[in-house]
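Submission checklist for the structure archive. All mandatory fields must be present; incomplete records are returned to the submitter.

[x] Identifier: Zinc transporter ZIP3
[x] Organism: Papilio xuthus
[x] Residue count: 103
[x] Sequence attached
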Amino acid sequence: MDVEAMVNEEGGVLRAKIVTMVTLFGVSMLVGCVPMLISMKFNWFTKSTGPNMRSSNRLVIGLLSFGGGVLFATTFMHLLPEVDENIKLLQVFRILIMDTLYN
């Protein structure tokens, strides 16, 4: 493969990564705003609830917590293939020996 083909291939990979990051951000922001939109539609929060709106509705707190957990889990699930690849490389080069992990 010549240098120009490699540069074009790397540019395509970079473009795909950027599109994926922007898409994931947009979808995450949209889905993250759903609990607030639901609460506004059903008037769960009114002026009479006072300054502590967090404790006034358990459903919204539950939805927000679930959404945060999904984003947190997605982050670590995304990292697992890279960690597995790096562990295999460390084993190949004898930097990480599996016997030391079990002793």
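[x] Structure attached
Curator remark: Residues 95 and 102 are 15 Å apart (CA to CA). The chain has a mean pLDDT of 76.
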